[in-house]
Amino acid sequence: MKLNKSLILVSALSLMAASLAACSGNNEGGNASPSASASSSSATASSSAPSESASPEATDIEPEAGAKLVVWAAQEQKDFLETMGKEFEAKYGIKVEFQKVGSADALNKIVKDGPAGVGADLFMLAHDQLNRAVQAGVILPNDFYAEDTQANFAKTAVDAVTATDGILYGYPRNIETYLLFYNKNLAKPEDLASWDAIKTFSKAYNVPAEKKFGIMWKLDDSYFNYAFMGGNGGYVFGKNNTDPGDIGLNNEGSVEGLKFMQSMKEVMPFKVADATPDVKTDLFQKGKLAIDMDGIWQLGSFTKEKLGFDVGAVPLPPMPNGKSPKPFAGVQAYFVSQFSQYPNAAKLFAHFVSSQDAAIKMYQMSGVVSARNGLDQDPALKDNELVAAFVEQFKNVEAMPSIAETASFWTAMGAVYPQIWDNNADVKATLDKAVSDMKTLIQQAK
Amino acid sequence: MRQHRITAAALSSVFMGLGQIYNRQFVKGSAFAAFYAFAVYFTINNWHHAIWGITTLGETQQKLVLVGKIYKPVKGDHSIFLMIEGLIMLFIFALFAYLLVMNAIDAYRGGKLREEGKTLNNIKQTLRYIPDKKFAHLIITIPLIFVFFFSVLPIIFSVMIAFTNYNNTHEPPGKLVDWQGFRAFKDLFSLSQWAHTFFGVFTWTMTWAVLSTFTTFFGGFAVALLVQQKGIRFKSFFRAIYMVPFAIPAFLSLLIMRNLFNAQFGPINSTLLKFGIVGPEWLSDPFWAKATIVIVNLWLGFPLSMLLIIGILTTIPRDLYEASEVDGASALYKFRKITFPSVMFSLSPILIGQFAGNINNFNVIFLLSGGGPTNSEYQFAGHTDILITWLYSLSITNGRYNFAAVISIFLFIIIAIFALFSFRRTRSFREDDLLR
């Protein structure tokens, strides 16, 4: 009797796995819903229970018995992950608990909590923390689903979550980058055709006394400013951002790029310290800022329902020398903790929440566009003009460096922008000092 | 006759409790002996591992092994855990050694009493003697152990970190941490322009500590005096309303302040502009950034001083004032000779504490200006950075925990010197009966 029951269970599970595999195989169509196929397979299993179908080629990893998962993610992801957790529990009988730990804090927290056995099984990290996480030995490679991940996700995303040791670690969620949002009531697409056009438009539009400005972005941050350097031939580290001995931040291209950025000052008459993100977003939402350079995370809040006006988006237009700025991209991904008691269940869940159906649900619930291939062709997202603009921008982005030495880049470059913007310092000299500062920091980390 | 004390002490130092048994304190002696047996067993079991852990900080590195398609983690040594465990063990061993010595001394005393022909306490008497005569010792033991583990141990631990290479490229459990001697000290001092930056930041830190302490103190003093004036109505209302800033978490109000003081977009400058005044570059200009921080800190800090001073003012005897009025003293004279000394007598220890706290007042600087505006003369520091925020960016943002430890040692020394020196010079510590 007991044997019979477990036989039924095993066959039901394997059938489920087989049907899942089928649906992940033809997911370009993306119509088969996993819940429907799961329920039908369990129905057949309970009626016939063919014992020989416990096939060795089941494509799902076998979760540990009695597994229970804890997931760390940002608050915005709560609804989506809890919904997915319920589906996961219904399907595999594994409970998933959501805890609010943003991807910026997750690494520091797991380094402390993991060895003590109180950390999460699964957490979100931005890819630029990947190599530190690998060095600190806190994450497990994405081994079982590696081929699946490599086949189904954008190359930028897969490369970004592959560490310098060549091993794939992450389960990518989405790529994040930035472009120009604009208020359709204030600016027309031709005003954003080139940076000269933006300057002309802004000169006519700016009224500093009324806090009306043509264009703004967060000026004290390399994340945004780097676009002008990277697009011009500048680079952070050599060999695809992996060689800390080769810094390209004061080469000719970088200097020229930052000089161009400096030239934008004529239409952006404010100090670096004053152009904070909350000020900027506030002005845009109030309809006082026409063009806003901001990231994909604003998709959920820059909608007609929330703002009262139509928002458009275009990729960063070419600079006067004809080259296009190359913005930094960050890849948010799920990682499985090395301290997890249930690594298989965690891998299974990571795979589960990055599936095609989960991706569409994620877009609908939190406005996040997954990094899965061909998602922009999905009917749910196809008509979104902003998503299309981002897909276009993704063709010209650079994944942020992720080696541990990158911290020195953020620190040293952060001091550059107030100099060249507020004090009109010489770009070349300022960058030379930043690079020598970086070298000092890197050398002392050894 | 002298034999007893020597024999007992010698026996007890060889094997704990033997001396007591020799002194015919059988229950006490066998309890000691049992404890000794346990301690020896514990030491033999743990000594080697503790010493190995704390000297090598681990030898096997954690790694991943490929089994079929799956990577399996193989646990290695966790250097930081080994360090803490080793430290705790050393503490426990030290405690054992201390108890062994105390036990020998006890045996010696017991022997001496025997030589003098007195009878020793039996176990019943001993058990009664401890809560009767040594009650304070008994009670203070527990907090003392807590202080040991929760204050002394972390301090020693953080000092030890300064001598390792614990940073974001040597982070356990993935990597092992090694002892590096004075390398972190040397590295920090060899930073180009280090001395210049350190001197500049140190000067501002001290200026800031003095300014912030005195503005909040005298600001609070002035308001307290005004509120306590005879003619003032609704005193309790005033006392309450000034406490409102204190009801909001400082970090929240600081972040709001940061937006208020936004020179281009903030409401303060917009309001000033309506009166035809062009407001200063609050947070972008080095001088104004410093001024802004002091002003905001005054707003945050004076209510506490005010409340303390109101409390002290009410304790000054009225007849002192009446007597001085009869003698024809002016208001200023009364303040100088009566009010101010009374307040200072009670408040100066707190003032010194506030001064020491302000040296490390991380929140106000970090949340308000973030250390900015940047100073091109400095290394990784801005005009308003104080030592602690500078080191935060240098060590935490860049993952140099060992650097952070080095600097915390420096800050500890600076503050300890200030605190000790000024506490000892404070009158309320030297003369208990200055006023009364």
TrEMBL record, chain A:
Say if the entry is tagged with keyword Signal. Answer: yes
Q: Which InterPro entries match?
A: SBP
**Renumbered residue ranges of the record's region Disordered:** 27-60
Look up the signal peptide feature and give its range. Answer: 1-21
Q: Where is the composition biased (Low complexity)?
A: 27-58
Keywords from the UniProt entry: Signal, Transport
Return the similarity comment: Belongs to the bacterial solute-binding protein 1 family.
* Protein name listed in UniProt: Maltose ABC transporter substrate-binding protein
Organism of this sequence: Cohnella hashimotonis
From TrEMBL, chain B:
The answer to whether UniProt assigns keyword Membrane to this entry is yes
Q: Which family does it belong to?
A: Belongs to the binding-protein-dependent transport system permease family. MalFG subfamily.
Please name the PROSITE patterns in this protein's record.
ABC_TM1
Q: What is this protein called?
A: Maltose/maltodextrin transport system permease protein
Q: Where in the cell is it found?
A: Cell membrane
Instruction: Give the residue range of the signal peptide.
Output: none
| Record function comment | Part of the ABC transporter complex MalEFGK involved in maltose/maltodextrin import. Probably responsible for the translocation of the substrate across the membrane.
Q: Tell me the Pfam families matching this sequence.
A: BPD_transp_1 (PF00528)
Q: List all membrane-crossing ranges.
A: 26-44, 80-105, 135-163, 208-228, 240-261, 291-317, 338-357, 401-421
| PANTHER family referenced in this protein's UniProt entry, alphabetically | MALTOSE/MALTODEXTRIN TRANSPORT SYSTEM PERMEASE PROTEIN MALF (PTHR47314), MALTOSE_MALTODEXTRIN TRANSPORT SYSTEM PERMEASE PROTEIN MALF (PTHR47314:SF1)
Q: Which UniProt keywords apply?
A: Cell membrane, Membrane, Sugar transport, Transmembrane, Transmembrane helix, Transport
Q: How does it sit in the membrane?
A: Multi-pass membrane protein
What SUPFAM superfamilies does UniProt report for this protein, alphabetically?
Answer: MalF N-terminal region-like, MetI-like
